[in-house]
Design goal:
Layout (H helix, E strand, L loop, with lengths): L1 H30 L1 H34 L10 H34 L15 H29 L8 E8 L2 E6 L35 E3 L2 E4 L4 E7 L4 E5 L4 E5 L5 E5 L5 H8 L6 E5 L11 E7 L1 H9 L4 H5 L8 H12 L1
Parallel strand pairs: 1-5, 4-10
Antiparallel strand pairs: 1-2, 2-3, 5-8, 6-7, 6-9, 9-10
Helix pairs in contact: 1-2, 2-3, 3-4
């Protein structure tokens, strides 16, 4: 019933608009169509100028109000270059936006219909075509070149002293794995995935490199130390979004992707800088991956080396969880066996 009423209201609104338009047409005929049209043009011209002025004031006010609050400061060294590229892009497009909008509304006001004025037919001009094609092409080429420079840097080989963290997306959470003291992750095989045996990643326990690996529910990083993320997916395409670091990378099934960053501030420092005691670095899934997409939020903790070492010392090895040692026989049962054997 409510759906029918909504449709009825929409139909009635269209009928009212149509009737108003027809009434305006009849009034124009009675007053003289040409005179009515010129009067409407004058009104629209003044309204366009008012919209231009109020719009530019609104743009300036929003920029002054929200400046530095939307993106905030980059929390990674590499993100600084990304921010610079964003601001350069906004500056170029902002200047073009202001110039074109002023020209649009001023021309609409200045060249409105008037007595004795005739529209000039201007079909083509080679010089103008070249100007508004070449200049944007050059600007876009420069921006793309700088973008590729940052992209190649982020996806290049990480420094030799970089930490390694593996992030695997699965519907609908992140699986985090760290290498042990050897600094290398053990081999994986999707055929070995068995959640019941604490092996959601399909780690090959026969690989010696996997014996000291461990998993966690959070990503822990050391401030000022480069970290290489090895990113993958267990099912569909996910996307590791690191907004505070200005990074993102698709997690593709069967095709590991990588990027590396260097955190600038600890989580504690960011809480102080933002004035938000509840601040956390986060991993967001920037790819629509299914009905539970909204729940794919991971937490990143950036801390000092001492804090990181203390945290690592508390983490159980995944090999031990997946391959628990057989329970020792109870003391009472052992003595009973010995008594029976003696008899």
């Amino acid at each position: 019933m409510s759906g029918f009423l909504a449709v009825l209201v929409v139909v009635l609104i269209f009928i009212v608009i149509f009737q108003i338009a027809k009434a305006s047409e009849y009034v124009s005929i009675l007053k003289g169509e040409k005179k009515a049209r010129q009067q409407s043009n004058r009104i629209n011209g003044f309204l366009l100028i008012a919209f231009l002025v109020l719009g530019l004031i609104g743009v300036y006010y929003c920029n002054d109000l929200l400046k530095g609050k939307i993106l905030g400061e980059s929390a990674s060294v590499q993100g600084e270059g990304v921010d610079t590229l964003i601001y350069v892009t906004l500056a170029i497009t902002g200047i073009v936006f202001v110039i074109t909008q002023i020209a649009l509304f001023v021309f609409a006001f200045k060249y409105q219909e008037k007595e004795g004025r005739k529209a000039f037919y201007f079909p083509h001009n080679n010089k103008l075509e070249v100007i508004w094609t070449v200049i944007p092409a050059i600007a876009l080429t420069v921006l793309v070149a700088f973008g590729l420079k940052h992209w190649f840097q982020l996806t290049s080989e990480a420094p030799k002293d970089a930490a390694i963290v593996e992030i695997t997306g699965k519907q609908f959470n992140w699986l985090i794995r760290y290498p042990g003291k050897d600094g290398q992750l053990g081999r994986r095989d999707f055929k070995l995935i068995d959640a019941a045996k604490s092996n959601e990643l399909g780690v090959d326990w026969n690989d010696p490199l996997s014996k000291d690996d461990f998993q966690a529910t959070e990503v822990h990083l050391v401030v000022g130390k480069p970290v290489k993320f090895i990113i993958g997916s267990r099912d569909v395409i996910h996307d590791v979004g690191l907004p505070q670091f200005r990074m993102k990378m698709d997690a593709v099934p069967g095709i590991p992707t990588t990027l590396w960053v260097t955190p600038k501030y600890t989580t504690k420092q960011m809480k102080e800088k933002t004035g938000n005691p509840d601040f956390t670095y986060e991993i967001s899934c920037d790819q629509m991956c299914g009905s539970g997409h909204y729940s794919m939020r991971g937490v990143i903790v950036v801390e000092t080396q001492a804090e990181y070492d203390a945290w690592v010392a508390k983490q159980p090895l995944q090999y031990n969880l997946a391959n628990p040692a057989p329970a020792a026989p109870a003391a009472g049962a052992d003595s009973t066996v010995k008594t029976v054997a003696a008899k």
